[in-house]
Structures are given as structure tokens and as C-alpha cells.
Amino acid sequence: MRFGKTAVEGGRIEAMRWRELSGAERYRVVEMARKGEVTIRDLCATFGVSRQTLYRAMEAVDRASMEALEPKRRGRKRRTDAEVRNEELEQKATRMEREMTRLRQKYEVAKTILDLQRRMERGEPLPGESGGKR
To answer: What range does the domain containing 109 cover?
Structure first.
């Protein structure tokens, strides 16, 4: 059986090491051990992994299988407190940005009005008027 990439050293083919295997390839190794297709000792030697690591992988597969088969609540998943808080903060930021835009516009209008009043007080022509004193 071939797993992932192989390396040729000194005329013999050597399988990839455990840490180089993908999750699917590790799962296949676990299944081979469970079905007795290859002994645990041979698998450990072939993939350069300890028995303890292989047994931990087998336990992880069992836990994941049981979790996958647990009954789930129907419908939409509840939002976590963090998700709710994040959404509230995003909405608040959007409101603040709109308010900031509105205030900038008001500031520009007020600044323009003050500029016009100052020109009038100095007797300068206003934009759109012909140059001349009043």
C-alpha cells in the first residue's frame, strides 16, 4: 500500500514519516491497525511513530466519531455572547461614523457662514458679488 509521498534510499522504498502524513492518511493507518491488516508494531516501525502516538490517534478517531454522531439541536445555531457583542459594536461604529459625517457637514456649513460674516464685517465682496464696497 502506498501512503502519500515516498522516498527511495539505498534501493528500498521508505514511506513518509507520521508527522508528514495528512489527516486522511493518518486515518487510513488507524483503520489498518483496527482491522488487523497490519500489526501495530509494523505500522509503528513503518511510519516512525511510537505505539503511544498511534493509540492516541485511535482514541482521537473514536472521540471525533462519537462527537459526529451526537444529536444536534435543530434550527439555527445560537449566537455566542462574543458574536452578539461584536455585532452590537459594529452597529455602534456604523452609527458613530454616520454621526461623524453629519457633524463634519454641519461644521463645514458653520465655518462657511462665519467666513461670510467676517467678510461682510470687513466690507469685502461676497462670492458672486462684483467687487466694490457697500
So the answer is: 91-125
